[in-house]
Design goal:
Shape: globular
Order of helices and strands: HEHEHEHHHEHEHEEEEHEH
Strand content: 15-25%
Strand order of the largest sheet: 5-4-6-7-10
Number of helices: 10
Distance between the termini: 42 Å
Number of strands: 10
Radius of gyration: 19 Å
Length: 288
């Protein structure tokens, strides 16, 4: 069975829209500021989609566009301005930043109460401690996919491939925390015999950043497979000249898995849905 991320994300967005409308009726409109440096096509596409989603859900959007050669001090000053703007409940700086920026310094500059991306050290520290916090949107979206698809996680063996701060590490924490209760193995580029690890997984989350990382022989029959990868590969049959594939060999793994996410249409839509949900939560906390 295919996990329809588009449908689940649409359900979440409808829930967010209803809550945002209720807040607006009480005189409060949630607001999200999205900061984009430069004009990288993928980043522009992501930011445009986020701003469109805000409009559809009744969340005010405060776009900030800066040239790629903006000095870091100017970017930090812009973030400080947004921190002080009471209309702005959430701040997102689109990553990756152009070369020359200290990405961690930029993330630290965002007020923790407006860190709807969940990347601030305060947010990640609270996640590690099992405290209530803003959770990075992609891992949070995967948990929602599993929950709304009826996947039992307690006592299951979950294997995460990839150890990034954006997906892999927080994903492992979320799967292993109380309430989710999976037993977690975290794999990465230094893992030997990766296939031996992935074949043990009841739930396999692949966020390696490389197409074809996981094939059919690496998946236990009946496993739930979550493919986080989004990779462009050349395809002369497409008008764009490329097509999107995940980190999993979908055609080979789909017959083996009990549930699997497609690319596109799986995890991707959930990331924006959870960003909207985090923004709504930030507004509720700040304006309570």
């Amino acid at each position: 069975m295919i996990i329809d991320g588009k449908k689940i994300a649409s359900d979440i967005r409808a829930e967010v829209a209803a809550e945002a409308a209720a807040m607006a009726a009480r005189g409060t409109r949630p607001g999200l500021a999205v900061v984009l440096l430069g004009d990288h096509p993928a980043s522009v596409s992501y930011v445009t989609a986020k701003e469109r989603a805000c409009a559809e859900c009744g969340i005010a959007s405060f776009p900030v566009r800066l040239p790629a050669d903006t000095p870091q001090e100017a970017l930090l000053a812009e973030i400080a301005r947004l921190n002080a703007d009471d209309r702005v409940d959430g701040i997102l700086v689109q990553l990756p930043l152009p070369r020359g920026f200290d990405e961690q310094a930029v993330i630290r500059a965002i007020a923790p109460e407006k860190d709807v991306d969940g990347f601030h050290p305060v947010s990640l520290g609270r996640l590690l401690l099992g405290q209530d916090t803003f959770v990075p949107c992609t891992p949070a979206g995967i948990i929602e996919l599993l929950r709304r698809s009826g996947v039992e996680t307690a006592g299951r063996h979950a294997v995460v491939v990839g150890r990034s701060n954006i997906v892999g590490k927080p994903m492992a924490l979320l799967l292993g925390r109380k309430g989710t209760d999976a037993t977690v193995t975290l794999c990465h580029t230094a893992t030997t015999n990766l296939a031996d690890m992935t074949r043990q997984a009841d739930i396999l989350v692949v966020a390696a950043g490389h197409p074809g990382t996981v094939g059919a022989g690496m998946v236990k029959p009946g496993a739930v497979v979550i493919d986080v990868g989004v990779n462009r590969i050349p395809d002369a049959t497409r008008k764009s000249g490329f097509r999107l594939v995940g980190d999993v060999d979908y055609a080979a793994v789909e017959p083996v898995a009990s549930l699997i996410t497609p690319v596109p249409g799986g995890v991707g839509p959930m990331t924006i849905a959870m960003l909207l949900k985090n923004t709504l939560r930030a507004a509720a906390l700040r304006r309570a």
